């Protein structure tokens, strides 16, 4: 009888450990993010993560997911297949403020010729944020690159905006943090797994 109970206890422990392994998380800026995610049926792993700080205020936590590790901006931007970045808010902001911050970051890290190629996508991207009236601490925006579909965004798991087709646009968004003039110089190495 004792052996039977021991076997059940070990089986229960194995199940608990197994389930715990499936739900691994990392903590960034006090928010929890999955250490792996599925995008377009492919498993992506955390490439890097960090916190965007403005002066002394923590604004958001950011996690970059890729199919395989990349430690240079070019490596990330040339990465084939699906990608994701998750942005978890660390303070309250309006959707308009978020959209404006994204557009400012894109403008700082792309030239006019580059932006002219996806001007419609820029407008659609900004519009998607206007539909978020108020974002609270802990809210999460996922921005995925899905091959053959485009840039797909969700706010707390709900789709926002329409898919944006051009990979160059997705890369322009990533350049907010990985470009020559990153919005936060400490976030760039963190997203490349060097932080």
From TrEMBL:
The keyword Signal applies. SUPFAM superfamilies: Chalcone isomerase (SSF54626). Residues 1-25 form the signal peptide. Pfam families: Chalcone_3. InterPro entries: Chalcone_isomerase, Chalcone_isomerase_3-sand, Chalcone_isomerase_sf. Keywords: Signal. Residues 26-193 form the Chalcone isomerase domain. This is Chalcone isomerase domain-containing protein. It comes from Pelomonas aquatica. The lineage of its organism: Bacteria, Pseudomonadati, Pseudomonadota, Betaproteobacteria, Burkholderiales.
């Amino acid at each position: 009888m004792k052996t039977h109970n021991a076997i059940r206890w070990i089986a229960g422990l194995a199940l608990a450990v197994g389930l715990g392994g499936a739900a691994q998380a990392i903590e960034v800026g006090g928010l929890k993010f999955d250490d792996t995610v599925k995008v377009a049926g492919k498993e992506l792993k955390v490439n890097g993560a960090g916190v965007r700080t403005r002066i002394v205020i923590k604004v958001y936590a950011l996690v970059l997911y890729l199919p395989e590790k990349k430690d240079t901006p070019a490596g990330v931007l040339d990465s084939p297949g699906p990608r994701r970045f998750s942005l978890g808010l660390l303070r309250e902001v309006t959707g308009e403020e978020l959209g404006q911050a994204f557009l400012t970051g894109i403008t700082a890290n792309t030239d006019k010729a580059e932006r002219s190629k996806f001007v419609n996508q820029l407008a659609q991207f900004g519009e998607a944020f206007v539909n978020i009236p108020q974002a609270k601490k802990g809210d999460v925006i996922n921005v995925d690159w899905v091959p053959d579909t485009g840039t797909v965004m969700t706010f707390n798991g709900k789709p926002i905006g329409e898919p944006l087709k051009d990979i160059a646009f997705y890369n322009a968004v990533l350049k907010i943090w990985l470009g020559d003039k990153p919005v936060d110089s400490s976030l760039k190495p963190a997203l490349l797994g060097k932080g």
